[in-house]
Amino acid sequence: MGNHISNNSNSEKNILVTGGGGFLGNAIVKKLVERGDNVRSFSRGHYDSLEKAGVEQFHGDISNKPAVVAASKNVDIIFHTAAKPGVWGKYADFYETNVVGTQNIIDACKINDIPYLIHTSSPSVIFDGTDMEGVDESVPYPKTYHCDYPKTKAMAEKSVLEAAKDGLKTIILRPHLIWGPEDNHLVPRIISRAESIAQVGNGKNLVDTIYIDNAADAHIAAADSLIKKPELTGNLYFISQDKPLPLWDMVNAILMAGGKPIIRKSVPAGIALAIGTILEFIYKTLRLKGEPKMTRFVAKELATAHWFDISAAKQDLGYKPKISTEEGLDRLEKWLKRRTTEK
């Protein structure tokens, strides 16, 4: 069936979303269901919200190839959003999910004759610890990484690029800092640390973010564009709000949306980096549980600018962020208030 997909991007399709119960995956699933596609999800857990939406759920670990192959039978397109994020943990865990998992998806496309793959990556794959201001997709991978997440995501990206050379039609998207209602990673992390967060550096570093609905729209636009224009295969695209903001203004906006006070303390970038280096050494040497309050990667990420030229996504995919940052923050505040009253 994979070979018989129509070139009309509006025709109903059979679609698999990996990590369909996750923040980004769920947002993509909702939009696909709304427009009438047949959607199934592959996740480790069972999600009532997916069941209510009539989504077929396959359960398993992305590093388990037979489970991935079984879940992707009779599918036209895969959106691969499942990943292990984070700045700390065992290398093997990041490798199994991000590298082996992605290779399993590529293999499943070959085995099940699935022509299209939209792969979710991250701008952190090109982060070398220095300011990145208005850079485009031509920036090379750095020689070293300070964290296993970007390292393994870069390895996954390279596998997808190889698969494109081998005939799989694929687009890689690099959304930066996805946030919004239902966020189970960035927003709760910021709000839970409200009392202890200190600004790192001078606070002037501009960063890109992307609101959840815009990120989901970009993924669907990538799939539709790839079907209409197969020559886009193997392309990478940064996607964002297209309006970089000082990082600490954004952090404060999220804190205010959660009814928390804004940050008053600050730490020089060099001191944060030194603290991160020391804490990493202590945690590794003593094999401490949990994660350090600061790492080298986090110190550099918090003190540098990282915003990207998204003109390629606008031109090739017709991507335009529909929800402004202001509207997104307003929606986030309402959602956080609702959650507080429900508790």
Write up what this structure looks like.
By secondary structure, the protein is α/β, with parallel strands linked by helices. The chain has a seven-stranded parallel β-sheet, with helices on both faces. The protein is globular and about 55 Å long. The chain is 43% helix and 16% strand. Helix 3 crosses helix 4, helix 4 runs parallel beside helix 5 and helix 8 packs parallel to helix 12. The protein has a domain of 219 residues: NAD(P)-binding Rossmann-like Domain (Rossmann fold). The N terminus is likely disordered. The N and C termini lie far apart (46 Å). It is built from twelve helices and 15 strands.
Write a short abstract of this structure.
This protein has helices at residues 23-34, 48-52, 65-71, 91-111, 148-165, 186-192, 212-228, 247-257, 269-286, 296-303, 311-317, 325-342; strands at 14-18, 38-43, 56-59, 77-80, 116-120, 132-135, 169-175, 178-179, 199-200, 206-207, 210-211, 235-239, 245-246, 266-267, 306-308.
